[in-house]
């Protein structure tokens, strides 16, 4: 009862101060990009602030979604994205999925802060063992999400989405304040036109937005994608960190997974967007291992030196100089 009253009180404070809180969150997020290199342990302060903001935002999103669901008159001008529809449907359908998905996001929000703390308190060997342990935990958590999906249907509903929880899709400052005045509604013209702007995914039930994994190729592709980070960090620990074997192995797993996965039809918009995100993430390999050491890092350092005395570009070059040592030192800045 006391916790419920405290939550209700905090919710009222949140709703009454949405514009201020939203502006503060945005300003602090921008600040985290400029803190590294400014003072001792600035990178730890920056990442601790970023992790705290992510956790607070996740809690705020939970409260705001409850507010929206309780208000039958609230109608968003733009319909929810396919990602939000699907992840919210699964979270509402399966409480275990919801809490495991939140736990996964909690780990992702705090993993870099944990690595930075370990670097300052334990030996390098113990630090890397902890990173491997954390990747094992993440692999188990992702497997649990697949298991929960499997327990509710014949086969899991397609590839696991990232993030596995609904994202905020509206400006919190646009929500109605907690007053007795009616919530704003859309105009009659918009009311008529929005339902007409349909795609095949718009009329599908939220649980059917992804096609279930059916063949062994689908399963192998998804499992290889899931274990790829664990294999990569395990090889980093067993080999020299400058060895090319971890990077090559991870890339091979990435390519095999990509070639084994099915080609979704044009109507499978959500699955296509998830695979497109995975394809874009391949660019991060430019900041890993031997590719980073032999190609990307020298290019960035050369650019920073050339633009040191150039207006505006010099500021960007200074930021690069501040971030390059962090990419060298910390695994989770560019982890798969």
UniProtKB/TrEMBL annotation:
Any single Gene Ontology cellular-component annotation: peroxisomal membrane
Pfam families: Pex16
Listed transmembrane segments: 131-152
Protein keywords: Membrane, Peroxisome, Peroxisome biogenesis, Transmembrane, Transmembrane helix
UniProt xrefs under InterPro entries: Pex16
Gene Ontology process terms (BP): peroxisome organization
Keyword Disulfide bond carried by entry: no
Subcellular localization: Peroxisome membrane
Family to which the UniProt record says this protein belongs: Belongs to the peroxin-16 family.
The protein, known as: Peroxisomal membrane protein PEX16
Species, as recorded: Favolaschia claudopus
Phylogenetic placement of the source organism: Eukaryota, Fungi, Dikarya, Basidiomycota, Agaricomycotina
